[in-house]
Design goal:
With 113 residues, the protein is an alpha+beta fold. It is 25% helix and 23% strand. The longest helix has 14 residues.
Amino acid sequence: MPRLTISPPTPRRGRGFTLPRTRLEAAVDVLNELGGLAELEERDGGFVIRGFSCPLAGVTPDHPEMCNMAETLIAELAGVPVHGHFDRGERPRCCFEIESAGDTAQKTETINE
């Protein structure tokens, strides 16, 4: 079985900072390498990672904590707070919302949009 190595993206902007979009793109790449199908969208000054296929679908009905693990993985890789929305129905999929730096209001995201 191939081994997946996960490492944070390399900084691209002076003083060791990485652009948030670059880090989020790297997180999307990791989700896709795990067997998912995810895309990064920019919306309302923030970002949304939308999952169309879940690599954990076989276990999430009995272990919903796996969704939280994916949320934590994205937050760690991207270095920003992430809020996940999960559809654990017949075709499990997810959405991860990343607020803009100045936005303190809590938004809700529906997976079916």
